[in-house]
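From: lab user (bench 3)
To: helpdesk
Subject: output format question, protein + zinc ion

Hello, I'm new to running complex predictions and I'm not sure whether the block I got back is the full result or only part of it. Here's what I submitted:
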Amino acid sequence: MQFAFHNPTKIQFGRGQIASISRLIPQDAKVLVLYGGGSIKSNGVYDQVSAALKDHQWEAFGGIEPNPTVETLDKAVARVKAEGFTFLLGVGGGSVVDGTKYVAAASLYEGYGWDILAGKHKVTEALPVGAILTLPATGSESNAAAVISRTATAEKRSFLAPAVYPAFAVLDPDTMTSLPDRQLANGLVDAFVHVCEQYLTVPTGAMVQEGFAEALLRNLVVLASQYEQRHTLEWRENLMWTANQALNGLIGAGVPHDWATHAIGHEFTALYGLDHAQTLALVQPALLRVCFESKQAKLNQMGHNVFGLEGDNVGHRTIDIIENLYRSVGMGTRLGDYQLDKDDVLLQVMTALEGHGMTRLGHQRDVDLNTVDAILRRTQ
Ligand code: NZQ
Ligand code: ZN
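Helpdesk reply: Thanks, we reran it on our side. This is the complete output you should expect:
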């Protein structure tokens, strides 16, 4: 174990916490509120933000789409540069929060913003960001990552920069009451896979990281089994806090990661428009089956400690249980569930991964294109 851990985001958790932004945002800031397609206008969140900002100088920028695009976000960047906003408040799901981080970084960069995603510009400074989360899933509200798409080239890329950690994140479970079931299931599955990407590698002996990861996985298993209680406050609170903790850096500190499922999944979103979590439910069970040997020890551990399995074939049974968990919340796990054609997927996804240099994935860098080919065939 060798790491630095510093998560600077202040979490304001609980009902009614949106009001706290009035004191969390500096009084003299010129605030741009960024939001998505309008859910915050119909569920009362926008009104709460307006009330809390009544003594601040602020304007709004709406229309950030799911899987936010650089084309849309650059319009916000132009406004920030022209009008001199000094604080960005993202109000929405992971897409809005990621988009806000991009705007925060690109606004202090003179070149073309996509350079940040293409790895040509390393972000070292950004405008201050705050987040009001309305969809627990990505953990973006208190991490340093953002995933941005580019429509023109059907690309979806990410960047990581400590400068874009939100200064604060409001997690009010009441904002979740208007979420459609599909988004609740997306949140649960995304959080589950985030824990897996930092846990299902090799045994590390890191008791805090592994033990906490298993606790988060057990939470998500319980929440899936109690899915019919998803409209209760307790269920929402637990999903919101679990999804946050799944990707705030703690369980991943100083242990190997394997983001292969996410890397392959991002190509599915860029090419076919699948929701982020749908791509994970599609790719991950197939990947675990193909990469079984390198993950067997950890799958066994997960089977014992998360699912309480004993006896033979614990690793293989664990993968079956994971796939069934996703299906139990209504998530498709096979190409046919999304009307995707195997031959088209093989051609397009492989070409895209190769074009993006994603040819050595996995914690041991051994998931090459041949392995991806085998994984894609197993998604049938
Ligand atoms: O745009 P609006 O109208 O707000 O509607 C959104 C959107 O249509 C809706 N929604 C959000 N909160 C709502 C609501 N509808 C009703 N009531 C509410 N309270 O939900 C839809 C999906 O929103 P989106 O933000 O796209 O979903 P999610 O939070 O799952 O974010 C997905 C994005 O995050 C990226 C993904 O790749 C994807 O682009 N990720 C970001 C990560 C990070 N920054 O660390 C890690 C993740 O692995 C992920 O890659
Ligand atoms: Zn994810």
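A quick orientation on your result: Residues 138, 190, 193-194, 262, 276 surround zinc ion (ligand 2) (CB under 6 Å). Let us know if anything else is unclear.
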